[in-house]
Amino acid sequence: MQDNDIQDEQSSPHRRHFSIEETVFILMVILSLLGIVITDFSRSDGFGYWMIMVVVFGALAIFVSWMQAKTSDNDFADIVKEQGRHWLHTLIVVGAASLIIKTEINASLVILLILALATMLDGMRIGWQFTLLGFFLATCAIIVAYVEHFILACVGLAVLVTTGTFVWGFWLNRQSAEKEN
Questions:
Q1: To pair with 73 at 20 to 30 A between CA atoms, which of 44, 121, 127, 144?
Q2: CA nearest 25: which of 138, 152, 177, 127?
Q3: Measured between alpha carbons, how far is 164 from 78 in angstroms, rounded to an integer?
């Protein structure tokens, strides 16, 4: 095997994982937009949707962590325990918030903010895309609360965030390729 082949094999898992992480990020943005639309049309369905999204986001975070653990020295069992506790605690706080807040639209916005915070904090372990997703969720919650035509504003923000992620990812890949050469 030549040196170039060895370098390609060593760098390809990172590039492949970046693509998978990018796909998970886009999926989470789409699920978030879907939740905003559902909340707009049916407040009770929106409330339930956000409750389910805590579990879905947790599962996706564990999946991304697993992908990252395959190329590092981290023990996957430890990662699952840590991620599981993080998202279980998030679910407990979401449940408590739903008991305290009586109106479904306010409860949905608070759950969205809790999910935003949990995603931001998880980004410290997983990577910048989760942190960015958390900021996206928090910004969408504020937009929903204050902008009359919030769906269009949130979709525009989603396009901006997704495009920015692609540009940043491309730049990071380019920088790492230049360092290798």
A1: 121
A2: 127
A3: 32
pLDDT, tens digit (0-9, with 9 covering 90-100), for 88-108: 999 999 888 888 887 777 888
Give me the residue label for tokens 């969408």.
140
Mean pLDDT of 11-28: 72
Distance separating alpha carbons of residues 42 and 72, to the nearest angstrom: 44
Report how far residue 143's alpha carbon sits from residue 118's, in angstroms, rounded to the nearest whole number: 19
- Of 49, 42, 41, which Cα lies nearest the Cα of 112? 49
Amino acid present at 77: A
DSSP-assigned letters across all residues of 63-92? HHHHHHHTTSS--HHHHHHHHHHHHHHHHH
* Chain center to CA of 100: 26
User: In this predicted model, which residue has the larger pLDDT, 177 or 54?
Assistant: 54
Task: Say if CB 55 and CB 91 are below 8 A apart.
Answer: yes
Q: What are the extents of the domains in the chain?
A: 7-176
The contacts of residue 21 (CB under 8 Å, 6+ apart) are 64, 67, 127, 129
